[in-house]
């Protein structure tokens, strides 16, 4: 009985996805964005103006010694020192999910090094607890009253 022969004239598929190219693209760090561009992307779809937000944050940093901003990758963490080892955190980001997890890790490490013990993240995105968990932080969700009497959800983490 004859041995089956391989077909050597098999055509290579023309529309195959470049898997290795996609993996390399995902592992490449994001290009560093300007602060105003981060705010523009983070505020897209809202009625907030990124230039006005940038100016308001800059003025707040200059006038209130308890308010600071930290940048990690393409994320901005605005935090207010409540004075008891706790910070209230506002996050604006243009990071992809993988880089956002890294940004949260960097922020948590900086907070720990600075002597803070607890952070209260404003929950504007329901995916925030998952991101915090992926960054190695245990988030407890709480409802807090706002100035206008409404309720706001916050994710409380210990660093």
Description:
This protein is of the alpha+beta class and 159 residues long. It contains five helices and six strands. Strands 1-2-3-4-6-5 form a six-stranded mixed sheet, with helices on both faces. α2 packs across α3 (50-63). It starts with 18 loop residues before the first helix and ends with a strand.
Quick gist of this model?
The chain is of the alpha+beta class and 159 residues long. 35% of the residues lie in helices and 26% in strands. It contains 5 helices and 6 strands; from the N terminus they run αααβββαβαββ.
Topology diagram in text:
Blueprint (H helix, E strand, L loop, with lengths): L18 H9 L7 H8 L7 H14 L3 E6 L2 E7 L4 E8 L3 H17 L4 E5 L5 H7 L4 E7 L5 E8 L1
Parallel strand pairs: 3-4
Antiparallel strand pairs: 1-2, 2-3, 4-6, 5-6
Label this structure with key terms.
single chain; 159 residues; alpha+beta; Aminopeptidase; 6 strands; 26% strand
> What are the secondary-structure elements, in order, as H or E?
HHHEEEHEHEE
Radius of gyration: 22 Å
Tally of individual helices: 5
For the largest beta sheet, what order do the strands appear in spatially? 1-2-3-4-6-5
Overall number of strands: 6
Overall structural class, as computed from helix and strand content, comes to alpha+beta
Regarding CATH, which class? Alpha Beta
Number of domains: 1
Q: CATH superfamily, please?
A: Gcn5-related N-acetyltransferase (GNAT)
Helix content: 25-40%
What CATH architecture do you see? 3-Layer(aba) Sandwich
How far apart are the termini? 72 Å
Q: Mean pLDDT score, rounded?
A: 88
Question: What percent of residues are in strands?
Answer: 25-35%
Q: Largest beta sheet, briefly? A: 6 strands, mixed
Shape, principal axes of CA atoms: elongated
CATH fold-level assignment:
Aminopeptidase
Report low-confidence residues grouped into runs of 5 or more.
none
